[in-house]
Design brief:
By secondary structure, this protein is mainly α. It has two domains: 5-159, Calponin-like domain (Actin-binding Protein, T-fimbrin, domain 1), CATH 1.10.418; 184-260, Actin-binding Protein, T-fimbrin, domain 1. It has eleven helices and three strands; from the N terminus they run βααααααββααααα. Helix 2 crosses helix 3 (49-61), helix 3 packs parallel to helix 4 (76-94) and helix 8 packs across helix 9. The chain is elongated and about 70 Å long. The two termini are 31 Å apart.
Length: 263
């Protein structure tokens, strides 16, 4: 995480129903343990969330995470100290260690949005949170950073919750050594459900980025004419493709083919 970087949740993610449900479930889960202590979490990114998590863990394990009466001031420094103790406690008692590329202690202490949320999701899953955690939830994070006097913006997508295991995942083939190993495409062809799930993930990824220019694709087939694909690649690569380089409203198959060959 860059020192001068500012991270924000993309508006498309804020509006995503599944993301909002996940946030609500996490808050309900935490508050169900701390409300007797006259504590309440209204925002998972507020500085008091560390104290709330410490209280939750103490209720579940019966062991003290933070010494009573210490670190009561609501400051960034105290948040970092408490969250550090929380992460150490979880690692020591439950064996839940940081996962590079998902969440790290450094990211949690720096209030990196994706790192903190992934930590909360993993903790809630480990402790069998009774509130529903929607599967396949993605979040788009906008990173703004000033480099050489110029603000640079970059958008990254992170997966907060995992897939729901399907029946196919739990079935053990009777022949442990198939004659021909199936590749990823074979699996997709043989499992319409997996194909549907992958399509939904890809469509969500596409729309998270296209939302930056107020465009939405209702179906992946809309990328067939090349227009949405050109705009998407331009956003991802921070490039502007002049309108003269492609057909904004392709009316023939030749126009579509021409659009596909822009990159």
């Amino acid at each position: 995480m860059a020192d001068n970087a500012v991270y924000e949740i993309h508006e498309a993610s804020k509006a995503d129903v599944q993301f909002r449900r996940l946030m609500q479930s996490l808050k309900q889960w935490i508050n169900s343990y701390i409300n007797q202590d006259m504590l309440v979490v209204r925002d998972l990114f507020e500085l008091t969330v560390g104290t709330a998590l410490a209280t939750l863990l103490e209720k579940i394990t019966g062991q003290e995470v933070v010494e009573k009466g210490s670190l009561v001031a609501v400051t960034l420094k105290n948040y970092q100290l408490i969250m550090g103790l929380v992460v150490q406690f979880v690692d020591r008692h439950f064996g839940m260690s940081q996962v590079e590329g998902r969440w790290t202690l450094k990211g949690v202490l720096a209030q990196d949005i994706s790192s903190l949320l992934c930590f909360l999701v993993d903790l809630a899953t480990l402790l069998k949170c009774p509130f529903p955690l929607p599967p396949n939830v993605l979040i788009a994070i906008i990173q703004k950073q000033v480099i050489d006097g110029t603000e640079k913006t970059r958008t990254t997508v992170h997966k907060l919750t995992q897939d729901i295991p399907t029946v196919e995942d739990s079935v053990v083939a009777s022949d442990a050594t198939p004659a021909v190993a199936m590749d990823a495409f074979d699996v997709l062809v043989d499992s319409p459900q997996k194909f549907k799930e992958l399509s939904e993930l890809l469509l969500g990824f596409v729309n998270m980025h296209l939302a930056m220019v107020n465009i939405q694709a209702n179906d992946l087939s809309m990328l067939d004419d090349g227009v949405h694909a050109i705009i998407l690649i331009g956003i991802l690569a921070n490039l502007f493709v002049p309108l003269s380089k492609y057909h904004l409203i392709p009316s023939t198959e030749a126009h579509k083919v021409s659009n596909r060959l822009v990159f």
